[in-house]
Design a protein that fits this description.
Helix content: over 70%
GO biological process, one term: carotenoid biosynthetic process
Mean pLDDT: 92
Structural class: mainly alpha
Largest sheet: none
Strand content: under 5%
Oligomer: single chain
GO molecular function, one term: geranylgeranyl diphosphate synthase activity
Pfam families: SQS_PSY (PF00494)
EC number: 2.5.1.32
CATH architecture of the largest domain: Orthogonal Bundle
Organism: Compsopogon caeruleus
Order of helices and strands: HHHHHHHHHHHHHHH
Distance between the termini: 60 Å
CATH superfamily of the largest domain: Farnesyl Diphosphate Synthase
CATH class of the largest domain: Mainly Alpha
Length: 319
Amino acid sequence: WDHRVRFRRQQQRVLDVAYRECERITAIYSKTFYMGSSFLEMSKRKAVRAIYVWCRRTDDLVDGPRAVQNAASLRAKLDDWQVRLRETFAGRPRDALDLTLSEVCKQYNRMDITPFEDMIQGMFMDTEKTRYQTFDELYLYCYRVASTVGLMTLPIMGTFDSSQEAYERAKEPAIALGIALQLTNILRDVGEDRMRGRIYLPLDDLERFGYSEQDLMKSVIDHRYRNLIKFQVERARQYFRKAEEGIYLLSEDSRLPVRTSLDMYRGILDVLEKNEYDNFHKRAYLTKLQKLALVPISYLRCQDSPFLLFLASLLKGFV
């Protein structure tokens, strides 16, 4: 009995240190996610940051400083990562960070391995594709690398009631938010991706606006390019609007973190517009002060009150 007690205490100490490491990693690599998750109560906060770290480690297999460049070796690494994921879900974590995810799976019974495996498939896409012909192709990529995060965290966020019906209804807006966030990332990073030989903007859309791959590789900004990016911005905003409709489906204590992340990312599109759609030479981002100024507006938007929503719209004019 004493051995078991000591083991549990030792495991808890390891877990506490690992959760603190998840907090540190999240703070470094995603300030928006870190700020948004700060509004969650402690157990939910630790859980979503554990998931963020798993996602970060998954992405690092492809894009990180230690990423393997050889396609066959990278595929082998991703295959092993999938085996490791299944072991973690089965309660056999390989390291302390895996242990945090394993604990999250025990705490939240709606945790599903499918979106995690779908994200790994998204990483496979990143190793195999540098162009997307249609928006449908890009949508699948965005779903796998971003919408999956919403589905991973939905069991933690919870819904306004505990019914399966409410949970299922919340999935579509969660998927829409992921699409919106990833489309925003793509629009923000066109210049950086170009330097890596990647074009995420659908080639069909380039053709529609009379703009070529060669133009993009040369950073040509003219009326064709501005119209192209304006079209992409409006598409992203449509998905943000779909996501907004689902915020009230979430449990009350989870609405502000999601709303804050949504508003901050949508603000990047506003900056891109102010930059006259120049995402080759100017990076669209919100300053820390701008992010902080959005928090009370996001809070008001979470309230079920026409007056407070009106007040939020007034305040937005000053941010």
